[in-house]
Amino acid sequence: MHVVVNAATSVDGKLSSRRREQIEISGPEDFDRMDRLRAAADAVMVGVGTVLADDPHLTLDVEDRRVQRLRNGRPGNPARVVADSRARTPTDARILDDEATTYLLVADIAPDDRVEALEATGGVVLRAGDERVDLAAGFEALESHDVERVMVEGGGEIVFSLFEAGLVDELSLYVGSLVIGGRDAPTLADGEGFVDVDEFPRLELTDVERLDDGVVLHYAV
Ligand SMILES: NC(=O)C1=CN([C@@H]2O[C@H](COP(=O)(O)OP(=O)(O)OC[C@H]3O[C@@H](n4cnc5c(N)ncnc54)[C@H](OP(=O)(O)O)[C@@H]3O)[C@@H](O)[C@H]2O)C=CC1
Ligand SMILES: Nc1nc(O)c(N)c(N[C@@H]2O[C@H](COP(=O)(O)O)[C@@H](O)[C@H]2O)n1
Description:
single chain, nine-stranded mixed beta sheet, 6 helices, 9 strands, globular, binds NADPH dihydro-nicotinamide-adenine-dinucleotide phosphate, binds ligand LIKH6CAM, NADP, 2,5-diamino-6-(ribosylamino)-4(3H)-pyrimidinone 5'-phosphate reductase, NADP binding
């Protein structure tokens, strides 16, 4: 599995405010870059925290990109993936509409009635992990559904877990020219955090580009 993490933060590293509402940090040029990344992926993934906070759709904005994918024998939109240990995704979430296949990675503790409710919407439930989604096992399950390249859009909990598990191959980070602040506002990598210097993932800065009124930092991991 090739894993690309893409996100947008304020200059102080926040993905959103302490209210955890969706904030437009990117401008039109960066949203277009994000759409291009989606178009290149087999699947776009978020954690259930992002589904509950933002109710994202995770499909392509630019019709030409959908057409091009269809010409190449691929589904018009990339699949959507939610890491959702307890199957908390609401059945009326936008990611469960019929515009793309949606995979829900759940853990063994997910209640059967919730799993059945999600399956009834057409969502494909894949079990990976006991109490929390085992992301490596989840990616293996996705590979058996021909998902080889996944773009992860966040949020901070899932991004930290991916770094912790050594599963990230590339990171692109748009840093918008604003300060959000707040000790309880989500950051790019939340979770427990690393403590030992040896644990900190070291990234290779491969490119820097100016977009909108901000900058995109490209890293190989
Ligand atoms: N600016 C940007 O680019 C973006 C901003 N955001 C913002 O981020 C915020 C949401 O981020 P956050 O709250 O961190 O939520 P996440 O989207 O990271 O989801 C976290 C949840 O995922 C579930 N999960 C399942 N398996 C794992 C695992 N192995 N490791 C970690 N989590 C797992 C957990 O719930 P459970 O245990 O129930 O499974 C966890 O609470 C929102 O404010 C949103 O607006 C989000 C995306 C992009
Ligand atoms: N890259 C980026 N820049 C921003 O400024 C953002 N607010 C986000 N947010 C994420 O974008 C997704 C929304 O998807 P849809 O437009 O509904 O398809 C979702 O993952 C947000 O959290 N990203």
